[in-house]
Amino acid sequence: MRIINRIVLALAAVLIVATPAHAAPALDDTSARTIDELLAVRAASGGLHRGELINRLSARLLGTPYGANMLIGSATQPEQLVVDLRRVDCFTFLDYIEAASRSTDREEFVTELVATRYTDRRVEFTHRKHFFTDWARTERVAATDVTATLSAAARTTTKHLNAKADGTTYLPGLPVVDRAITHIPSAAVDGAVVAGLRTGDFVGAYTPAAGLDVTHVGILVHTTAGPVLRNASSLDAYRVVDTPLLDYTRTVPGLVVLRPH
Asked: Is 19 helix (H, G, I), strand (E, B) or coil?
């Protein structure tokens, strides 16, 4: 069962580096070193296509241990800016790669992380991008939803994000947002769909569950051995791994694809 990383509230027992929302976080040695390595990859990227840049940056995090619920904040607990690359969940993995792809130094990395993770650059629980499709719908828009363009079999469902089937909410203190979610059913993910995917695309595992858009996310990478989903796995691997895309697709209801800007 995949953990819905942004929907489960962060636990106090999780070991993270965090500071009050108004302050830049102090970095542990591992995180500081990893950020510097990511920035070096970007500096050496030259005129690479953005998708290939995302590939090279995310490859640096292969093997990084998985950690569940890495963020802190709720309706009753102040939001804290977390920068911890010692462990990542599937969403913070994407956050860090997106921020690194836009940064040239540590200070800029933190600034870009805030812009990636929060609407209006406000480090507040109510402004955190809790849902995958927020990346294509809320400021700063980081990607375009291209799911419908990849297959004639794509289906669109109106979801009431944050609303459970029993009438309660996943995240108390946040509104319910009506949103049309398009996904490609797993049975329709064929060679033509794979050919339409680009290295660097952000891919989510669609869920039919009420109130949610996806249950897991990763980065699509075309390799010589075939397409893989580079993701922070909460299964047996418990680290960032490359999972064969078609093998993974057979285990989920469908895919949602966002293309980075």
From this structure: strand
Torsion sign, CA atoms 214, 150, 140, 64: positive
Q: Where are the beta strands (DSSP E) in the chain?
A: 18-20, 80-82, 143-145, 155-161, 177-185, 202-206, 214-223, 226-232, 240-244, 254-260
Q: What is the CA radius of gyration of the chain?
A: 17
Q: Which domains does the chain have, with CATH numbers?
A: 18-127 (1.10.3670.10), 142-260 (2.30.260.10)
One pLDDT digit (tens) per residue for the chain, 261 residues = 444 444 433 333 333 343 444 466 889 999 999 999 999 999 999 889 999 999 999 999 999 999 998 999 999 999 999 999 999 999 999 999 999 999 999 999 999 999 999 999 999 999 999 999 999 999 999 999 999 999 999 999 999 999 999 999 999 999 999 999 999 999 999 999 999 999 999 999 999 999 999 999 999 999 999 999 999 999 878 999 999 999 999 999 999 999 999
- For 124, the token pair is 């507040």
Q: Which residues lie closer than 8 Å to 150 by C-beta, 6 or more apart? A: 184, 193, 196, 197, 257
Q: Give which of 114, 96, 118, 110 is closest to 38, Cα–Cα.
A: 96
Total residue length of the chain: 261
Reduced to 3 states, what is the DSSP secondary structure of residue 190?
Answer: coil
Q: What is residue 149's three-state secondary structure?
A: helix
Structure token digits, residue 92: 């913070």
Within a 10 A sphere around the Cβ of 147, how many other Cβ atoms? 26
